[in-house]
Amino acid sequence: MTRRRYSLTALALALGFAAGGPAAAQAPADWSELPVHEVTLFWPGQASLQWLRSDEHAGGAQVAAGMACRTCHKDDAAELGRSIVGGGPLEPRPIEGKKPVIDLRVQAAHDDENLYLRFQWATQNPYPGVAHPHWRFDGEGWERWGAPRLHPDVWQEGGPAIYEDRLSMMLDGGSVPAFAEQGCWLSCHNSMRDMPDEPNADKVKAHPLLGEVLGKSDVRKYLAASRADEDANWEATKTPEEIAGIKVDRGFADLMQWRAHRSNPVGMADDGYVLEYRLSDAGQPVFTSNWDKDAKRPKYMFDAVKTGYRSRRADEIVERAEAGALILGENTVPFDPDLDWTEGEMVPQYVLSRAQASGSAADNMEVLGTWEDGTWTVVWVRPLDTGEPDDAVLDPGSTLTVTLAVHDDNITTRGHHVSFPLTLGLDVEADITVRKVD
């Protein structure tokens, strides 16, 4: 393979940390001195919490009674991935050539202030997945262009599969019932996007909490503890007061996501949590929509003076990967509708800003990814205690539960490779042992 290196954080390193962010923490200078933990991520298909607890699953009754997934599946993650990915009851829409597993290398350390993580994995494609859906001018107006592989626009209509690579981790300090046993499956349900019982948008919008309060039109991750019935049905939400009480008691899963298009170009990851829904932490996240709802057109375009172009075309998405993101105040100008736009010109759907990211949503200020020779290396810095009520606390001497996931090859929603729940121990022997460094 031709040696290629995409350092998408060059702009973040040159400009981002000086634009209102804290001084960069010092990650370990020599990662080779730290042990490597090999984690097998496997393709789960439509294996939801409801499926895990059902008679269709051989261990359904045991799971419903609280048995840990790894009691039966200690070393067979790769075998599970191979059995599911090609099609069958858990995979009604197999993707040709999709890898059954991703081998994730994890290294971990901490000092008195921060957790340091280093992740490495090989991508399925011979290029980094840094592209994302765009707004495309069709000669009369602007329309969405590109979609993830499981979207009907791709598998049914033959549209282009475009989506960013993503690395996610979910943390629980011990307050989420059964998370240590069943991990992220507590947040995965039949009603979610690309799952068997996905409700229509109108039904979700009419829901008194998800639609009328949260303003959502689809169902995303939620914890079983936020529902009032035994099946954790999406509609059976507990009262807002009950959910608020669960959050105060830290009964949520801390969810952090590094995104190759929507966060990496400014050296960050987003920060959220899962309880009644998959929600962003309080504050301003690193990316926002590049769409003017009233004018029905983008808000921003590329600054041609700085970039040499105002837009891109389909055949330029990968080749111009390093300059593919709109970064507010760095390579953007307000969208000009009076220019002579021609069919096929495109601008990204989102705009990024490190400077404007704020609050708990901006706690992951130092997450840097580099793609080289087919492999992503992501170095992640996370404060042990952010001081925020919507984040997990990582105390030295403690053990938490972590689940890891990678979205690869232009896909999102359930189309990820996932881990079983793992222990993360700070100065404690665990599946991933976090050693203290000076």
TrEMBL record:
InterPro entries: Cyt-c552/DMSO_Rdtase_haem-bd. It comes from the Bacteria. Residues 28-419 form the Cytochrome c-552/DMSO reductase-like haem-binding domain. This is Cytochrome c-552/DMSO reductase-like haem-binding domain-containing protein. Residues 1-25 form the signal peptide. Keywords: Electron transport, Heme, Iron, Metal-binding, Signal, Transport. One of its GO terms (molecular function) is metal ion binding.
